[in-house]
Amino acid sequence: MPPGPAQTPLADAQKDYNAGRYSRVVDALTREVQSSRDDASLHFLLGQSLYQLGEFQRAITVLERAVQLAPKDSAYHDWLGKSYGRKAEGSMFLTAMGWARKTHKEFEIAVQLNPNNFEAQRDLIRYEMNAPGIVDGGDGKALKHIEDLEKLDNLEGQLASGEFLATKKEMEKADAVFQKILESKTDRIGVYFEVADYYRDRPNAEKMSEAISAAEKIDPDDRRLKYYRGVAIVLDGKRPNQAELLLKSYLATVPNNSDVPPHASAREWLGRLYEGQRRYSEAAQEYRLSLALDSHNKSVEEALKRVEKR
Fold first, then answer.
1. Longest Cα pair distance anywhere in the chain, in angstroms?
2. What residue spans define the domains of the chain?
3. Given this model, what pLDDT does residue 204 score?
4. What burial class does residue 80 get, using C-beta atoms within 10 Å of its C-beta: 0-12 exposed, 13-18 middle, 19+ buried?
5. What are the distances in angstroms from CA 139 to CA 128, 143, 166, 190?
6. Which has the closest alpha carbon to 110: 132, 133, 137, 80?
7. Are 122 and 85 in contact (CB under 8 A)?
8. Alpha carbon of 269 to those of 143, 183, 244, 251, 284: distances in Å?
9. Among 58, 96, 259, 272, which residue has the least CB neighbours within 10 Å?
10. Contact 157, 151 (CB under 8 A)
11. What is the full per-residue pLDDT of the chain (310 aa) written as tens digits?
């Protein structure tokens, strides 16, 4: 049987990216862009990989080049905005303000270029509902964009509205929105995972399990289910051994990236599980691992201090 066509460097790198081999992508594409300086798609995938590795300054440099090469691509602007945002999070106040304004600008451009880029729409809304007016945020702007999004896609608009209400601590209204979404019978599995996130944080094990069951009907093999099943069991307080197996399997088999529940969260929930079982040293270890991945999580910091006193 004759060999098939050779894979392109971009196709090979995309496979590695999908498998979570981000360092391998960076090694390959850093070399490749030297000989293909005007290939926007190579720069974009390299920038995404650097972002997943937490190398935000390098990601910015590469993604700025991708945007320069393809200024009309909505996704490129959105990812550049994400990178600016993460850079802002780690900067001192005055510097952070500059990065924040750049973040907002890129999200706005991404939405203007393609209003159907719902990821960019949600990024813009999240920015505006969390950022102060001095850096182009504000509830009024967020609500206007939520209204615009609802006209394009009612379900996406409802998700944004529910998230807004929860962020503003209007929990009864948020409950009503997410209940309506839960009853929508949509075939979009990601919708149910977002609903599950809401009920995880509420916390409401019963409703979270309803959302997981709806997701399972769409794709019982989705890799995110291990995380959500494990967390729901921890919340429920039953079958702790199963929760431990699910969360450990998730950590071992699902690459840590921005498209799935973060490993920092899985570590935190393992810590909660162990703390509930009075396995304090193991809980402390999981909390430390969680903080190594997400050093800004105050609740995990408090949990670590709590178990270290035991």
1. 66
2. 1-71
3. 97
4. buried
5. 7, 6, 13, 25
6. 80
7. no
8. 33, 27, 9, 12, 12
9. 259
10. yes
11. 455 555 788 999 999 999 999 999 999 999 999 999 999 999 999 999 999 999 999 999 999 999 999 999 999 999 999 999 999 998 999 999 999 999 999 999 999 999 999 999 999 999 999 999 999 999 999 999 999 999 999 999 999 999 999 999 999 999 999 999 999 999 999 999 999 999 999 999 999 999 999 999 999 999 999 999 999 999 999 999 999 999 999 999 999 999 999 999 999 999 999 999 999 999 999 999 999 999 889 999 999 999 999 9
What do you get for the CA distance between the two ends of the chain, in Å? 65
Q: How many CB atoms lie within 10 A of CB 206?
A: 10
- Environment class of 38 (CB within 10 Å of its CB; exposed 0-12, middle 13-18, buried 19+): exposed
Tally of residues, the chain: 310
Assign 3-class secondary structure to 37-79.
CCCHHHHHHHHHHHHHCCCHHHHHHHHHHHHHHCCCCHHHHHH
pLDDT at 2: 52
- Whether the Cβ atoms of residue 110 and residue 117 lie closer than 8 Å to each other: yes
Among candidates 245, 142, 269, 267, which has minimal Cα distance to 196? 269
Please tell me the number of Cα atoms within 13 Å of 269 on its side-chain side: 29
Q: What is the fold of 1-71?
A: 1.25.40
Contact assessment for residue 187 and residue 218, using Cβ atoms and an 8 Å cutoff: yes
Q: How far is CA 303 from each of CA 94, 289, 295, rounded to the nearest angstrom?
A: 31, 13, 13
